[in-house]
Specification:
homodimer; 203 residues; alpha/beta; Helicase, Ruva Protein, domain 3; Dna Topoisomerase Vi A Subunit, Chain: A, domain 2; 4-stranded parallel sheet; two-stranded antiparallel ribbon; 6 strands; 12% strand; globular
Amino acid sequence: MEYPSKLIEDAVNEVSKLPGIGKKTALRLVLHLLKRDEDQTETLANALVAVRSRIQYCKKCHNLADSDLCTICASRKRDHSLICVVEDTRDVLAIENTAQFKGLYHVLGGIISPVEGVGPSDLQIESLLERLRSEEAGEVREIILALSPTMEGDTTAFYLQKRLKQFQLKISTIARGVPIGGDLEYADEVTLGRSILSRIMYE
Amino acid sequence: MEYPSKLIEDAVNEVSKLPGIGKKTALRLVLHLLKRDEDQTETLANALVAVRSRIQYCKKCHNLADSDLCTICASRKRDHSLICVVEDTRDVLAIENTAQFKGLYHVLGGIISPVEGVGPSDLQIESLLERLRSEEAGEVREIILALSPTMEGDTTAFYLQKRLKQFQLKISTIARGVPIGGDLEYADEVTLGRSILSRIMYE
């Protein structure tokens, strides 16, 4: 596409480098900026530069943080005896949104995937073991593995289980089954099969 | 949603102000920035600020431009006897992409819409008349109205026709009919009806 202005072309090219945004959407966004007040574009640009340059990773759980420790690890209200292991920050946000978990997290920063060349050493697994060995060790009671129910997630969970055995902790994984509100008829057979195998007894 | 960091929250809020981008998409984009090199975020931010602060409008056709005249109006290769009237810059780009039009443009900057409170005086209509009255006047041979085939587009076209009568120019509008590649069976009845009324004779 030919743009009427080099400035527009540059902006469209940069915006369309973002995932899921093509040239047409990028152009729509850039033209939208032109309609808004100039200071709004500056606020946007500053917020992007600030988040990129000043964000840190929590020294304890590797979640994103404003300072050395993330708000969750720093909080005294959280249950420090529970650690939920997740793939990335988005999973932390998803679990936080449920308001069902009051423990701490450990963000692996990825998942074991031989296809993509991601091995255990690329993930924050050693630092999890280190964390359990350190002064916290006595405090931690249970590790919950909250990884995606995929081949890679299961591989990672299996690997972690093996490595975590030495610590004599409870290790659990989030339940897999038919989604709540979903229609049984449309559940895929693997999920439905698993939900029968790991059925929950009425007490 | 609670964010692990104020920086992320600010960035997500700013990004989600863009049209068609919700909080979840904004978060995905911001997390993507964190994975890329820092200078890429700076390039993006600079491009956005630059396009917003330095873009101009072509003094002749009101298209977006880097300087006083847009590249199209400044070009000697274009046919200065044809002016295509469009709603906004995106329409210019769409028509340029067809490579079927070699004349100049006139960007109205909107369309007459009583519902949205946009009247003729809010658009670049006077400047079109001025353009035709000025030294160019003798040069221009035909005005093509390339407005959307909607109620507002037709209203604007009708209004322009009335105002342009004084100039003794050819005035045309882009053809409306069944889209090429479309299935006749699925064409809506209004379009199909119009395509019969304005049928084209084989010569």
